[in-house]
Design brief:
Layout lengths: L1 H22 L7 H17 L23 E3 L9 E2 L2 H15 L6 E7 L2 E8 L2 E7 L5 E3 L2 H4 L16 E9 L2 H13 L8 H8 L5 H5 L4 E9 L7 H10 L8 E4 L2 H11 L10 E8 L2 H7 L9 E5 L3 E14 L4 E13 L2 E7 L3 H7 L6 E6 L6 E7 L20 E2 L7 E3 L5 H12 L11 H10 L13 H5 L6 H13 L5 H7 L7 H11 L2 H5 L3 H5 L6 H12 L1 H12 L20 E5 L7 H10 L3 E2 L9 E4 L5 H9 L2 E3 L1 H9 L1
Parallel strand pairs: 2-11, 19-20, 19-21, 21-22
Antiparallel strand pairs: 1-6, 3-9, 3-10, 4-5, 4-7, 7-8, 10-11, 12-13, 12-15, 13-14, 13-18, 15-16, 17-18
Helix pairs in contact: 1-2, 12-13, 16-17
Length: 660
Amino acid sequence: MEIKQEIDRLKQLIAYHNNRYYDLDSPEISDYEYDKLYARLKELEEQNPQFASSDSPTLKIGGKAASSFAPYTHLAPMMSLDNTYNADEIREWYERTSSALGLRDFEMVVETKIDGVSCSLTYKDGILINAATRGDGKTGENITANIKTLKCIPHKLACPINGIVEIRGEVFIAKEDLIKLNERQQEEGLVPFANARNVAAGSIRQKDPAVTASRPLSFYVHSYGWGDIGASSFTDFINKCQECGLPVSPVRKVFTDIEEVIKFYEDFAKGLHALPYDADGLVIKVNSFELQKKLGVTAKSPRWAEAFKYPAQQCETIVKNISFSVGRTGVVTPVAELEPVKCAGVVISSATLHNFDEVARLGVKIGDGVIVERAGEVIPKVIKVVKSSPNAQAVAEPKVCPVCSGELFREEGEVALRCINPNCPAQIKARVQHYASREAMDIDGLGEIAVDQLVRYGAIKKLSDIYNLTLFDLMALNSCRDKKADNLLNAIESSKKRPLGKFIYALGIRHVGAKTADLLASEFGTAEKLAAASLPELERIEEIGPVIAKEIYDFFASEEVKKELNSFRLYGVNPLPAPAKKEGGPLSGKTFVFTGELKTMSRSEAEALAKANGAKTSGSVSSKTYAVVAGAEAGSKLKKAETLGIKIMNEEEFLALLKS
């Protein structure tokens, strides 16, 4: 059972980090650390197939499509790449590929692996009609209006291409452009962006395309998706893209010898950080489209490509101090303040120590020489102590909260030390920022700097105080004048009518993410019913489980929370109820798939209507699908339904079915 437990633990951990990276654009660990977790899970599943399951992250691609954008179904799955960090595994990939093809001297194309956000562009007769994020590989977010603001992406191709073609690439921001953007942010009193990938991810998901247009985003084509562009190989395809006016990566070489590929990889490492954009490795692809087709794909990745990534960058420096930060849920995190050192192209002056068990394990003290690791653009971490100073000072685990001097508590079985004072200023700041975030109540303008000042001035002491802010409170902020203050007050007022799932997520209940919040909203319908739910009622919800059920129950049993909910009601916060679950409705037990453009409603509205009448909905067609509702320009889902003999109906027939 130990192997099964490790597999389950790895699945939960990887799912958590997938959500941080793909859905929240806020990774906590480096790509290198993530890839080690992923490789370990894949190894255990291959060695113990009896414990493998269909919900494993090794079978999934990317994240989910955000609910704030219309869903877009890719014409062909938008897959992710398998990757490795060492030459022997690249040789193994080559031998597998060579054996499958019965060839030795096939062409391989090598390009840089840009650290940005994948995006697909769909052109019809040369006109850009759709742009979408990768999402889960099958369904992404329709971000056409935002992508059309990128000057580097043509709205009309410069060469004649008939029919529909889907072209994939990477949206990114160049290093120099990020520096200029951050200078502008600071001039406007806004928080500088932490890294290039987060800027790209956040910029293409803006509700206002004008914000996207204000960001200096770039795009390079990296792969072919669907349709006939008149190319028989990847190099032909890239040349055709250039001819059509699409931007492509300047780094590209063709090899027939895998040892030459490895030599190029080793040489390229020296100049990796001199590139004008962030890259974490190379991508190797079989050049011929015919050979690619012969090799095929797995459930998650093409067999004809492999990412050859560079290990995390390390450097040596000295720990000047160890300070403590307090997060939204009260967790106290030790942070090493470092002698500034350049690593992987940037200057590092701090690194996380995660928790006090990790401080003890490393044996790190103030004054010690340490190795710090950084991969990608996430927070660096201390790997080990290399020089123990004779004057080094040990740092004791704090007895009280470093911010409010409140009581600290560690739950049984947990390593996290937690401040349990609900009015701790550090927690208030983090909770307000979370509450106002785009994924929660989406209060535009209530960012880190504004929240910090409002909490410091005493204008916000608890979450509900957001709705008691006045124009006078906002005018006192350094970066908030006239129009900005009015806009923020309007944004606060608008947030009173957000969907219930958003409100539940915004409350910041431990272990309750956006998906669980939506589930609770659907299950209970109102905040009052959820707050009054008994522990057995919560435990009966299949997708939640006893641990999270207890967290939810304890949260709403708190007198402080009861007072807060009452304050929200008094201030007029009235979340929109989730559609009522209709047991035994006319569509009970039937699974529907919606595809294409509907005439009278969006696909998400149609799905909500189906669910309200007892149906289930799915993003993919299978033998369990009852019917596919097809609108204009329906794509691969319609074709699959025809192949499987699944019932196909149009929007009018679906609505008639509901009436009947």
